[in-house]
Amino acid sequence: MVRSMDWLWRLTQWTVKPALYIVAFGTVWAFIQRTLHRVLARQLYRPSGFFGKVIIPEVMNQMNLKLIEAAIEELDTSGMEVKDILEVGCGSGTAFKVLMNKFRDARIQAVDHSSEIIEYCNEKYLKEIQGESITLHLCNILEMPFTDKSFDMVIGLDILHMFSDRNQLMVELKRQVRPGGWIIIGVKNPSYYIREPEIQSGIHLGLYKVPTVLDVVDLLVKYGFKDVHPAKSQINDILSQVEDSQINLILVYARLSQL
Prior knowledge:
The chain is α/β, with parallel strands linked by helices. Helix content is 51%, strand content 19%. It has a 7-stranded mixed β-sheet with strand order 3-2-1-4-5-7-6, with helices on both faces. Helix 2 crosses helix 4 (115-124). It starts with a helix and ends with a strand.
């Protein structure tokens, strides 16, 4: 009987203890992942410190570069005369090059609320800034330092989810657009937000509120924009509502009345 109990005790040592170690390791690893996702969510919302200047811009580039390049390349410029562009929430400057290629004679003003991001862009795009193709501004996006009706085009790519008060944002964006000018808002496919753990963490922290294309359309119509429509090449994908659609950044165009 003693020998049987001894064998049972040894078996317990060989099976239960390793299982407990595995569970403990899994719990610790899950905690570490959750913490990292929360840190990344906060940094993506407002980059700061060494992490915000060195790491977050590269994360932004990896997350958004191909999406933004593809979206702007497909931008329908027929009927547009664009001399002054405002990019709201420029981030790491992912859109600068493709905007300059698309609108070669335009002047680009770019704003962001992170001093680390503005410092990063000042260093990376020094040549373009010295050539006065791009001017950077550190400011509150809800109180931008421009006079009314300053821009032919206002463009905001993947920024809407960061604003809980979208009405205040739309008032400020509309103030910038010249009569007959365009506003272009880019939102990601909702399935993209579902796939990204740092975005999910941001939602749980109350930093992000995920918009849909219909949310964007409703906002633009509410604030008096005309000819509100998604990019023509993306309409079928939007209407099909397929969650695994290959289109990840959807553009919605709108124009301000000439009156």
